[in-house]
Amino acid sequence: MDTQLIVGIVIAIVVILALVAGAGYALNRRRRISLRDEPAAGTDQVTDGSQRQVDRSGGYKAGSGFSFSQGGAGSATLDRPEPPTPPTPEPVAEPEPAAQVEPETDETTVVQPPAAEPEPVVEPEPVVEPEPVAEPEPVAEPAPVAEPAPVDTAPALDEIAPTAGRLSRLRGRLSRSQGAIGASVLGLLGAGDLDEDSWEEIEDTLVMADLGTAATSTVTERLREELATGKVRSAEDARAALKRVLVEQLHPELDRSVRALPHADRPAVVLVAGVNGVGKTTTTGKLARVLVADGRRVLLGAADTFRAAAADQLQTWGERVGAGIVRGKEGADPASVAFDAVSTGITEGVDVVLIDTAGRLHTKAGLMDELGKVKRVVEKKAVVDEVLLVLDATVGQNGLMQAKVFADVVSLTGVVLTKLDGTAKGGIVFRIQEELGVPVKLVGLGEGADDLAPFEPEAFVDALL
Ligand SMILES: Nc1nc2c(ncn2[C@@H]2O[C@H](COP(=O)(O)OP(=O)(O)OP(=O)(O)O)[C@@H](O)[C@H]2O)c(=O)[nH]1
């Protein structure tokens, strides 16, 4: 074989290989699920070089039943017209001296989400100088590579249930509370003229449903007014009057948006707190799913270093939706893990960092102080936009006591009420808002990954009646 022929064959093989590699890379890219928002016209870029969409929608996202907003710079307090109770006391803990709160960076690990793995940089094939080939022989075996094997081994991501209309879809889950408030009070109201015994019975029913004495008195008083107008003549009217009164009591004017939208130069930071077993980790995971479904890039911070399995549990939630996680060694300083999570979130240009804190007992003063420290340390890096207190609806009065202790340590901006599916005491929602002066923003209605719903007073009362 002469040299020219050999050179010709070599060039042909190189060209074919280059084409095959190019086609494989393109196919591989197409198979990846990208959680990063494509920069659209009119969106901003963060300054660290990574591209991120900065929300300019004013907080509302069409098509999602959840409402997200951007935290006000320098403030994480609620913007509410008239809190129903006196404001919660100022945090009493002294600010930590800076020397004690330096992050222990080597204590934490960043686990990237499967879909956010850095793209393999494919070196461009060396350009082969097109030598003049006299007679390019037809290549005998054109190396037919039909299907380049996908190199992406990322696990399949979960499909997330639609976020719109969740509370209505999950209304059946409130059936236990339905009987308690709806059936009996409506039965009495619909019976016509009410004597004092009937009014007492209504009060008892509301107290039993955990409305608390203050809300019960107001509701009964308002119902008496409604009936006194003489306009309540049918069961239908009675239902409408009860609905009006209950919705009023839930203060529909309160801002219930979750402050999870990014700022121009940093992610939103959401702290999730509560005693052990109330559903903090589960709620953090469920919230991550909603945010991912809404097109946000989420980073989880496993600041629950108290319970080893909590970080694993959170990591699993993250892997299922493609959210990264920053976790620490068991027993690591939770404040340090939280700090590292926020630093990583800023560097990576994510939209929101969700920090799951340890489920500490509210009676352990030292541990409660630790939560205050987590917030103060994080705030050296970025403002905490949202402090969500997770409360278990099934524990009733006890939950309220816990809530008050938390409110003394960190100023709460919202409540997540979990396990409403497992109680007949849905009335606790009224009481929490009344006594804490903080809106219930989200409710947990089951153990399923998508059983988290935004709290909407009208839909909630509808579900009760
Ligand atoms: N029925 C029901 N169960 C829930 C709900 N939310 C959470 N759970 C369950 O409550 C249990 C505790 O949840 P976790 O998320 O581990 O609670 P935690 O507060 O993080 O607990 P610690 O890490 O120990 O502090 C789990 O079995 C959850 O599935 C809910 O809305 N309804």
UniProtKB/TrEMBL annotation:
Residues given in the record as GTP binding sites: 274-281, 356-360, 418-421
Q: Name one GO biological process term.
A: SRP-dependent cotranslational protein targeting to membrane
Give TM regions.
6-27
Boundaries of every SRP54-type proteins GTP-binding domain copy: 439-452
**Catalysed reaction, written as an equation:** GTP + H2O = GDP + phosphate + H(+)
The record ties this protein, via Pfam families, to: SRP54, SRP54_N
EC number annotated for this UniProt entry: 3.6.5.4
One cellular component term (GO) for this entry is: cytoplasm
Span list, region Disordered:
39-160
Q: What subcellular compartments does it reside in?
A: Cell membrane; Cytoplasm
Could you tell me the membrane topology recorded for this protein? Peripheral membrane protein
According to the UniProt entry, which residue ranges have a biased composition of type Pro residues?
83-94, 135-147
Specify residue ranges for compositional bias: Acidic residues: 120-134
Molecular function per GO: GTP binding; GTPase activity; signal recognition particle binding
Which UniProt key words apply to this protein? Cell membrane, Cytoplasm, GTP-binding, Hydrolase, Membrane, Nucleotide-binding, Receptor, Transmembrane, Transmembrane helix
User: What SUPFAM superfamilies does this protein map onto?
Assistant: Domain of the SRP/SRP receptor G-proteins, P-loop containing nucleoside triphosphate hydrolases
Q: Which InterPro entries match?
A: AAA+_ATPase (IPR003593), P-loop_NTPase (IPR027417), Signal_recog_particl_SRP54_hlx (IPR013822), SR_rcpt_FtsY (IPR004390), SRP/SRP_N (IPR036225), SRP54_GTPase_dom (IPR000897), SRP54_N_sf (IPR042101)
Record's HAMAP family?
Answer: FtsY
What's its job?
Involved in targeting and insertion of nascent membrane proteins into the cytoplasmic membrane. Acts as a receptor for the complex formed by the signal recognition particle (SRP) and the ribosome-nascent chain (RNC).
Which family would the database say this protein is a member of? Answer: Belongs to the GTP-binding SRP family. FtsY subfamily.
Protein name, entry field: Signal recognition particle receptor FtsY
State the organism of origin: Gordonia sihwensis NBRC 108236
**Quick one: which gene encodes this?**
ftsY
